[in-house]
């Protein structure tokens, strides 16, 4: 299996933390040297391991903001 390369460009915020210290975070991440996208997923305390998450473009983030404002 190919190694996934990632760089956390900006940590926007922590949404929650579980009892093992893993945090669910909203970050701006570049995956495999591509353009950075918004990403929500769980991370181990040292950010070496990650859970499944969702990655969205800037346009999708703008739409999500609109939807949340109307909620």
Description:
- It is a single chain.
- With 71 residues, the chain is of the alpha+beta class.
- It is built from 1 helix and 4 strands.
- It has a 4-stranded antiparallel β-sheet with strand order 1-2-3-4.
- The termini are far apart.
- 7% of the residues are buried.
Task: Please sum up the structure shown.
The chain has 1 helix and 4 strands, in the order E-E-E-E-H. It has one helix at residues 58-70, and strands spanning 6-17, 23-31, 37-43, 50-56.
In angstroms, what is the radius of gyration?
A: 13 Å
Unreliable segments (pLDDT under 50, ≥5 consecutive)? none
Number of strands: 4
- Helix/strand-derived category reads alpha+beta
**Approximate helicity band:** 10-25%
Strand and helix map with partners:
Blueprint: E1 6-17, E2 23-31, E3 37-43, E4 50-56, H1 58-70
Task: Summarize this structure as a short list of keywords or feature phrases.
71 residues; four-stranded antiparallel β-sheet; 18% helix; 49% strand
């Amino acid at each position: 299996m190919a190694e996934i390369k990632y760089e956390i460009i900006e940590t926007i915020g922590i949404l929650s933390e579980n009892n093992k210290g893993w945090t669910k975070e909203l970050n701006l991440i570049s995956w495999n040297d591509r353009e950075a996208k918004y990403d929500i997923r769980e991370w181990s305390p040292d950010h070496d391991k990650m859970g499944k998450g969702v990655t969205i473009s800037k346009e999708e983030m703008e739409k999500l903001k609109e939807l949340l404002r109307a909620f």
